[in-house]
Amino acid sequence: MILSRFFSTFAPAFLLAGVFSGCVAFAELPPGIAAPKGADAPPPAQFVPVPVKPKQHPQLDTEKADRELREIVAAQNTIFAEAEAAGANFDRDSFRSKLQQLTHRYDKLLRMNPNYVPGCVAYGLLLDKIGMSREGAAFMYKANELDDKIPVVKNQLGNFCAEEGRPLEAYIFYNAAIALAPQEPLYYHQLGTLLAEARDIFLKEQPEMWSRSTIDQAMQAAFLQATELTPGDWRYAYRYGLSFYDLQTGEWEAALQFWEVFETKLKPGIEQQVCRIHQAKALGQLRRLKDAQIKLDTVTADELLTQKMSAVLEIDALRKKGVADQSEPAKEEKAEPQKTAPTIDKPDEAPKETASTREKEES
Question: What is the DSSP string of 51-86?
Fold first, then answer.
């Protein structure tokens, strides 16, 4: 579901074309797994499939395997860092050759240590990153069989199931990842995205468990949790803001309040203007057409012209429908009454003499 932008541009061109065919150690994908029924709350980790009879695995020389894996991962990080730094000078053939050598090293490591969980996980992550998601998932399934308490493995299997059109299984894996690592915002984000994108499948496949309102509630709660766990990361907060558009029942007042507060946390310029476009859309839904237009008038960045025009067309469509404008009346500033300065007695001045004081003195 989430792939690196760097590799999404070229990985399919040569990796999926079979460049690595025969280079990756054989690993089978398990058969499809049915999601549990009748679970009102997100299923805990024990719902995730595990072997009925745990296998007895031979002891590994983990010290030697760990040392080899560290060297492989260090080489892997160098390869990707150099490729990203190359920019326009990126050499596809050289990069492909280095990746092939890397996969051979992983294959050798796992042939020597077939039940080495860290190796399965690292190899699975690499294969998924370069576009070989099925091969990567096979190693993740194997790692999950060997050790079912690794949250990143659950998350990767959730991604794979989601991409394969099996959202009910993805739901199980994401919740298992959350149960194992409840402070990791990414897993909540993945769960919220799954519920938003596969809503119709959940409603069709499990109507006894899900309704539109429960899906919307769970979806937005997941995005909100990711936001609260990362108060300094605007990306999670932005996705939470977008979740208001996914709701069946309009919560436009809450959406407006969110975008107004969110704007104050961003840099002036394009970032804040994006928030004003969303504020205008929420105001349009609230039938506050004039207020929406005022917000749009402050959006001046050329980069946002398309988004701005989309919002303008939405407002114009409401006007053409004859929607009555419910904008708040402009607040008139009342002139403050002039205040007279209070009289302050100065200690160095004697009080003025009056007739009454003279009479008292003479008497």
Answer: -SSPPP-----HHHHHHHHHHHHHHHHHHHHHHHHH
Cα–Cα distance, 284 to 276 (Å, whole number): 12
Single-letter code of the amino acid located at 146: L
Direct distance between the N- and C-terminal alpha carbons of the chain, in angstroms, rounded to an integer: 103
Q: How many CB atoms lie within 10 A of CB 73?
A: 16
Tell me the C-alpha to C-alpha distance, in Å, between residue 133 and each of 29, 78, 143, 178, 286. 11, 22, 15, 22, 44
Q: How far apart are CA 197 and CA 91, in angstroms?
A: 36
Please state the φ and ψ torsions of residue 96, each to the nearest 5 degrees.
Answer: -60, -40
What's the CA gap between 281 and 259, in Å, rounded?
Answer: 10
d(CA 78, CA 98): 10
Nearest one of 180, 257, 192 to 218, comparing CA atoms = 192
Q: How many Cβ atoms sit within 10 Å of the Cβ of residue 246?
A: 16
Angstrom distance (rounded) from CA 187 to CA 195: 13
Q: Give dist(CA 225, CA 17) in Å, integer.
A: 40
Percent of the chain with pLDDT over 90: 69
SS3 37: coil
In this structure, are residues 187 and 181 in contact, taking their beta carbons and an 8 Å threshold?
yes
Per-residue pLDDT at 48 exceeds 50:
no
CA distances (Å), 200 to each of 10, 88, 168, in order? 32, 42, 11
The DSSP secondary-structure symbol of 332 reads: P
Residue type present at position 135: E
DSSP letter for 148, please. Answer: S
User: pLDDT tens-digit profile of 225-270?
Assistant: 999 999 888 999 999 999 999 999 889 999 999 999 999 999 999 9
Average pLDDT, the chain: 80
Residue where the block lists tokens 């937005």? 220
Q: What is the value of pTM for the model shown? A: 0.73
